[in-house]
Amino acid sequence: MIGLYTAAEVRAAEELLLAATPEGTLMQRAATGLATVCLGLLGRVHGTRVTVLAGAGNNGGDALFAGAHLARRGARVTAVLLDPERAHAAGLAALRTAGGWVTGPDGPTGLERADLVLDGIVGIGGRGGLRPPAAAVVERAATGPGLMVAVDVPSGVDADTGAVPGAAFPAQHTVTFGALKTGLVVGEGRGYAGRVHLVDIGLALPPAGVHQLTDADVAARVRPPHPGDDKYTQGVVGVVAGSSTYPGAAVLCTGAALRARPGLVRYAGTAAAGVRAAWPETIVTDGRPSDAGRVQAWVVGPGMGTDDDARSVLAEVLATDLPVLVDADALTMAAQQPDLVRRREAPTVLTPHDREYARFGAEVGEDRVGAARRLAADLGAVVLLKGDATVVAAPDGAAYVNGTGTPWLATAGTGDVLSGLTGALLATGLPAVEAAAAGAHVHGRAGQLAAEEGPLIASDLVRCLPATLARLRRAPADRLGDSGV
Ligand SMILES: NC(=O)C1=CN([C@@H]2O[C@H](COP(=O)(O)OP(=O)(O)OC[C@H]3O[C@@H](n4cnc5c(N)ncnc54)[C@H](O)[C@@H]3O)[C@@H](O)[C@H]2O)[C@@H](O)CC1
Ligand SMILES: [K+]
């Protein structure tokens, strides 16, 4: 698992190391790592043009020292000081000694001809949207030809939440120091960070409160059957979804559950005939969930409607002592009767998107991890908050940010697939928060695989699930989550 950290956690770890190392050591480590990444990105250094945007804090210091490294290797480096009076003195001296030029935001910045732009305006010390002079220079950098590289955090992105309250540096690469900051992989910040490179500066970090799963983490949780398994020991999923008029959600949800490899899928609801026709492997009933036979976890909600029948079916499922995944129409109903969820003792997983989340009484806001944690704690349930980077939170505060996926997943029916897939993982006995995080990861990877063939529809995801799971098991152990378009 990859640990994700807040600025405060990084600062606390830095304090200890700063006290134990000679002055300037950490910044030198950061700047050397940054320059090394830049050298790799540039390929050829001699004669290339680099513009360093330097704010008044240590983030500017990192950028100036890295600029000095590049200048010593023959790059033509211009430092643009956003606040010349307060620029990092040692970094500035190093850059000048290495032959770099220095100017202000209104001087000859070189942005219109730069090969590379280093954003050292603000790092983890940034607060609120970028101030006007910084915002203006970022806008000019973004319209120029240079490769956009952010130092530690793209300036204007909140390192903790990924919130982008105003202008921000749209990085193609972010070189971050000591630890991955949560804001680089969640919320709007994810779109500004580009590819994230982690430079080790020797920080000893405590266990993280937020994680991202890797392919290997997920492969370890989605186990293949053992020789002694039978259909019951591999997990039996019950699906309540769809209707006789709209069987689509039921077919997708059931198909995803089947393709995620449980031992058996049972279906209960008025789309039984449609489900039986699409998936003859399923045991169906057009009666109540209690008529479906024994299951180990339920998925309830997609396309089931919100009428009185649907309400009583939801109440029946939530009254069981089994893990239940609540999605779509069932979320709408659960938001009106949250005590049905609160009084459960068995695990519940809720899978809202932002509008469904708001039905529980508060908007998601800019802190998506915080929002998922709040609802999880309030309801005593795992909350899987869907989005570009889906967040999963447990009532005890444990949280995950998903790293897989593709914008192509924003299409009808993909949520039904996520529900069926995650319900199947719940039925295998995984802890609910891990089933949800693993489900989101696999769903994203299936989307990436399906999108390799062009625009995807939800049933492509179902078809791709077995190959997706097979690929996960072959993946190297430390691969960072990434998303392909
Ligand atoms: N503490 C350390 O030993 C290390 C710190 N490092 C670097 O230091 C950074 C943190 O440095 P600082 O604490 O000095 O803070 P920053 O350099 O991140 O930011 C502080 C500066 O930004 C300005 N600022 C804040 N919000 C702004 C906004 N919205 N618009 C424009 N300007 C704004 C402040 O006025 C201040 O001048 C890290 O991100 C990292 O890059 C690294 O060198 C590694 C070692
Ligand atoms: K920065």
TrEMBL record:
UniProt keyword annotation of NADP present: yes
Swiss-Prot/TrEMBL GO biological process terms: metabolite repair; nicotinamide nucleotide metabolic process
Reaction(s) catalysed (UniProt annotation): (6S)-NADPHX + ADP = AMP + phosphate + NADPH + H(+); (6R)-NADHX = (6S)-NADHX; (6S)-NADHX + ADP = AMP + phosphate + NADH + H(+); (6R)-NADPHX = (6S)-NADPHX
Keyword Lipid metabolism: no
Keywords: ATP-binding, Isomerase, Kinase, Lyase, Metal-binding, Multifunctional enzyme, NAD, NADP, Nucleotide-binding, Potassium, Transferase
Pfam families: Carb_kinase (PF01256), YjeF_N (PF03853)
Residue positions binding AMP: K386, G387, D388, A389, T390, G415
EC number(s) given by UniProt: 4.2.1.136, 5.1.99.6
Gene Ontology molecular function terms on file: ADP-dependent NAD(P)H-hydrate dehydratase activity; ATP binding; kinase activity; metal ion binding; NAD(P)HX epimerase activity
Cofactor: Mg(2+); K(+)
Superkingdom of the organism of origin: Bacteria
Residues annotated for (6S)-NADPHX binding in this entry: 58-62, 123-129, 152, 249, 303, 353, 416
Residue intervals of the YjeF C-terminal domain: 214-472
UniProt cross-references to InterPro entries, sorted A to Z: CARKD (IPR000631), Nnr (IPR030677), Ribokinase-like (IPR029056), YjeF_N_dom (IPR004443), YjeF_N_dom_sf (IPR036652)
Regions that span the bilayer: none
Record: residues binding K(+): N59, D119, S155
Cited PROSITE patterns: YJEF_C_3, YJEF_N
Cofactor note: Binds 1 potassium ion per subunit.
Segments forming domain YjeF N-terminal: 5-209
Family affiliation: Belongs to the NnrE/AIBP family.
Subunit structure, interactors included: Homotetramer.
Functional description taken from the UniProt entry: Bifunctional enzyme that catalyzes the epimerization of the S- and R-forms of NAD(P)HX and the dehydration of the S-form of NAD(P)HX at the expense of ADP, which is converted to AMP. This allows the repair of both epimers of NAD(P)HX, a damaged form of NAD(P)H that is a result of enzymatic or heat-dependent hydration. Catalyzes the epimerization of the S- and R-forms of NAD(P)HX, a damaged form of NAD(P)H that is a result of enzymatic or heat-dependent hydration. This is a prerequisite for the S-specific NAD(P)H-hydrate dehydratase to allow the repair of both epimers of NAD(P)HX.
NCBIfam families linked to this entry: yjeF_cterm, yjeF_nterm
Entry-linked PANTHER family: ATP-DEPENDENT (S)-NAD(P)H-HYDRATE DEHYDRATASE, ATP-DEPENDENT (S)-NAD(P)H-HYDRATE DEHYDRATASE FAMILY MEMBER
Official protein name in the record: Bifunctional NAD(P)H-hydrate repair enzyme
Organism: Geodermatophilus siccatus
